[in-house]
Automatic annotation (TrEMBL):
Protein name in UniProt: PilC beta-propeller domain-containing protein
Organism: marine sediment metagenome
Length: 260
């Protein structure tokens, strides 16, 4: 609709999240759920809501959110009891995103991915969850009570420093690692940028602003794009885009462009 205009549907009173931080969104039925670490989890019902509102049930605040099977799952959390838990993954009651009290009956619980693998950077949903930490990729599989979910580390010593770089395409997940771009197929990661491509990008990337990297998928043209702050950026504002053409018939896989 070319006549449509952007509308501010923020919760009454606004938010505390810093201007350079990011939100994470997911969809539960006809609800949009949104999180950041500084504000209560938000909900917006499509077709009926005028504004976002705080989600009922006192869910933890979090940086990441996804839907895994019949659960809302959040990662890198804060709550009033345990404070900041950067390696924690927590999930709602089965079938109820407004129930977060740990309970064997409802199956709401949490898992701390303790160890040297760093912060939970991304949770990708679906029939199973895929959890990216800074130095690991873990599969989250529903097994029912009493364990509820089984956690298996699939990749060790390889994760992502940039949560916004992770993008799902079918059963594949593309992401930026410490040494270049990869695709994860649920079993292993395969590099998609080699030698000169990786070096050129990493030499240009301003690593003080990993959190400003974002990814977008263009399924029509079969291109994945990552915007990032390169050399000459202004206070971390992304000024370049690197694009990967995943079409089997692509003549050129990689391209760079400037953001005007």
């Amino acid at each position: 609709d070319s006549s449509a205009e952007w509308q501010d549907v923020s919760v009454a009173g606004g938010y505390s999240v810093p201007s350079d931080d990011l939100w994470s969104f997911t969809q539960w039925g006809n609800q949009i759920l949104a999180v950041n670490i500084d504000d209560p989890t938000q909900t917006y019902t499509m077709g009926t809501s005028a504004l976002f509102a705080n989600l009922a049930g006192s869910p933890p605040q979090a940086r990441q959110i996804a839907v895994v099977r019949d659960f809302v799952v959040v990662g890198d959390t804060w709550d009033g009891v345990d404070g900041f838990q950067t390696q924690r993954v927590r999930w709602s009651a089965i079938g109820d995103p407004t129930s977060w009290t740990v309970s064997a009956a409802t199956q709401s619980d949490f898992q701390d991915l303790s160890g040297p693998n760093g912060t939970v950077k991304k949770v990708i949903g679906g029939e199973f969850g895929t959890i990216f930490q800074e130095r690991a990729i873990t599969r989250m599989t529903y097994v029912g009570s009493p364990a509820i979910f089984q956690f298996d580390t699939i990749e060790e010593s390889r994760g992502t420093p940039a949560s916004g770089s992770v993008v799902k395409l079918g059963r594949n997940i593309f992401y930026l690692g410490d040494d270049g771009f990869y695709v994860f197929d649920g079993v292993q990661s395969t590099p998609i940028s080699h030698n000169k491509i990786s070096k050129t990008f990493l030499d240009d990337l301003d690593t003080d602003y990993y959190h400003r990297i974002t990814a977008a998928l263009d399924p029509i043209n079969q291109i994945i794009m990552w915007s990032y702050p390169g050399s000459g950026n202004s206070n971390g504002t992304p000024n370049r885009v690197v694009s990967f053409n995943y079409s089997q018939d692509a003549k050129y896989r990689w391209s760079y462009s400037e953001i005007e």
